[in-house]
Write a structure and sequence with these properties.
The protein is an alpha+beta fold. It has 12 helices and 6 strands.
C-alpha cells in the first residue's frame, strides 16, 4: 500500500540544500548546487512519485550551459509506458529537406491522447546507416510522446547526440540493501528496494535481430515510398510475429529482384497486367487494351508501372496480392 504521507518531491533535499538551491531546482530543474546526499534523496523521491524503480536508473544527469538537469533513459520510458498503459495509436513518416520526420500519436489508460515528433538527418545516407536512422527516428518520437503524455517535460537520452557541448555526469551511488541505518530506511521506502513485480519484458536478441533486418529491408531504395509507408503504418516492433516472419520471407527476394533492371521491369509489367486482368470486365475494352499496351512498354520505369498498378487496384477498392 502506498504511503499517503509521502512528502512532496522537493521536500527532502531542503535538509541539506539552501533555499537558493531549492529555488534553482524547482524553477529550472538545476541540480548543480546540490550535494550527493541531496541528489540521491531527490532522485529517489522523483522515482517514487512516478512509481519507477530507482535501481534501474530511469534518470541520469546532464551538464549543460552551467546547469545540471535530469534526463530520461530508456528504462524510464519503458516503465512509464507500462505503468500508464501508454499505447501507440499511429505513426506517420515523412521526409523533407534531408530529414526523416516521424510523428507518434499515443493514448494512455484514461483515454487521453498526445503526439510528439522525432526527426533525424538522413541526407546522403543509404544502406545500414539509413536503416539505423529510420529506427532512431521512430524511437525518438515514441519516447518523446511517452514523456509528454506522462507530464514529464525533460529530455530523453535519444536526443543527447543533437545537443552541442552536453556532458553526462555520474549519478551518486544509491543506498544498498545492506545499508540499514535509520536515515537510509527513512529515505528509501522498502518497496522500492524490492524487485519490480512486473518487470518490463526483455526482447530476445534473435527477435531484435529480425526486427533490425526487417527495418533495413524496408529502408532499401528498391522499395517505393508508398510501399514503405504501408509497411511502416504500424511499428514493426508491434507487428505480430507471424507478420514479421512472412515479410522477412518475401521481402528479400523482392528487393533482390529489383536490383536487376531487367527483372524489375518484367515484375512491374506483370504487376500492372495482373491488376488490369482482375478488372477487365469492369472497364471498357479500350481502357484495358491501353493498360496492356502501357505494361508492354520497354521504356517504362518500373516504379511508375507499380504505382499505376496500385492506383488501378485502389480505383476498384482492392489491395494488391
Amino acid at each position: 500500500m502506498e504511503n499517503q504521507n509521502t512528502p512532496a518531491v522537493a521536500d527532502k533535499p531542503a535538509a541539506s540544500a539552501s533555499v537558493d538551491t531549492i529555488q534553482r531546482l524547482v524553477l529550472g530543474g538545476d541540480l548543480s548546487k546540490m550535494d550527493a546526499k541531496a541528489r540521491v534523496t531527490y532522485y529517489i523521491q522523483l522515482c517514487e512519485s512516478l512509481k519507477l524503480n530507482p535501481y534501474t536508473q530511469p534518470f541520469q544527469i546532464l551538464r549543460l550551459s552551467g546547469k545540471e538537469v535530469l534526463y530520461a533513459t530508456k528504462s524510464c520510458t519503458e516503465q512509464l509506458r507500462k505503468q500508464n498503459k501508454v499505447s501507440v495509436t499511429k505513426l506517420e513518416h515523412r521526409t523533407e529537406n534531408g530529414l526523416m520526420v516521424v510523428t507518434c500519436s499515443v493514448k494512455d489508460k484514461t483515454g487521453r491522447t498526445d503526439a510528439s515528433t522525432g526527426a533525424v538527418v538522413i541526407e546522403n545516407m543509404k544502406g545500414e546507416a539509413l536503416a539505423n536512422a529510420y529506427m532512431k527516428c521512430e524511437t525518438k518520437a515514441k519516447r518523446r510522446a511517452t514523456l509528454s503524455i506522462c507530464g514529464l517535460g525533460m529530455m530523453d537520452e535519444s536526443e543527447l547526440d543533437t545537443i552541442k557541448d552536453a556532458e553526462t555526469v555520474p549519478m551518486p551511488p544509491l543506498p544498498t540493501e545492506q545499508e540499514t541505518s535509520a536515515e537510509v530506511v527513512q529515505q528509501v521506502p522498502a518497496q522500492l528496494a524490492e524487485p519490480v513485480a512486473e518487470a518490463t519484458p526483455v526482447v530476445l536478441k534473435a527477435e531484435e535481430a529480425k526486427l533490425q533486418k526487417l527495418v533495413q529491408l524496408i529502408a532499401s531504395p528498391e522499395l517505393d515510398e508508398e510501399e514503405r509507408a504501408v509497411l511502416l503504418a504500424v511499428p514493426v516492433d508491434q507487428r505480430p510475429a507471424t507478420w514479421v516472419e512472412n515479410t522477412l520471407a518475401k521481402l528479400p527476394s523482392v528487393v533482390q529482384e529489383r536490383k536487376d533492371p531487367k527483372k524489375a521491369l518484367e515484375a512491374a509489367q506483370k504487376q500492372l497486367r495482373t491488376a488490369a486482368a482482375r478488372h477487365q470486365k469492369d472497364m471498357p475494352d479500350s481502357a484495358y487494351q491501353a493498360i496492356i499496351l502501357r505494361a508492354g512498354a520497354i521504356t517504362a520505369k518500373p516504379a511508375e508501372l507499380r504505382a499505376e498498378a496500385r492506383a488501378l487496384l485502389a480505383q476498384f477498392q482492392l489491395q494488391p496480392a
